[in-house]
Design brief:
22% of the residues lie in helices and 29% in strands. With 126 residues, it is an alpha+beta fold. Helix 1 runs parallel beside helix 2 (84-93). GO terms for molecular function: deaminase activity.
Length: 126
């Protein structure tokens, strides 16, 4: 059974996709960029961008009845790999249990709206 997950606490999709899809306990979250859902505006600066992306992911997880503890896989896309240490530190701070999902981080030439970071995630709950 497939259920579309949507919350106003995260930015609306900017294309033909859903914020997330829940299938048999597995939540597939679309890539989140640093858009503040209250204003619809991008936040700037890699620190603020990363925090906003993580807040957006958290809002979607919450809507699905999950937390970062349910995350099993994350994909981080960076415009500049020199931002890796900052993004990594902020990302890690959202996992209270200290148990982290599998992950890859890749540098890309461009991201939607020319942001510096985008993160997608897969989470699971029985």
């Amino acid at each position: 059974m497939k259920k579309i997950i949507h919350t106003s606490e995260a930015p609306a999709a900017i294309g033909p996709y859903s914020q997330a899809t829940l299938v048999n306990g597995t939540l597939y979250i679309s890539g989140q960029i640093p858009v503040d859902p209250e204003t619809g505006k991008l936040v700037e600066g890699i620190d603020k961008e990363t925090h906003q992306v993580m807040k957006n992911l958290k809002a979607i997880l919450t809507e699905a009845g999950m937390t970062f503890d349910n995350a099993v896989k994350a994909s981080i896309f960076l415009k500049n790999m020199d931002d890796f240490a900052v993004v990594n530190e902020i990302y890690a701070s959202y996992f209270d249990s200290g148990v982290y999902p599998a992950r890859e981080t890749v540098q890309v030439s461009c991201l939607p709206k020319n942001v510096d970071v985008e993160i997608s995630m897969i989470a699971f709950k029985d």
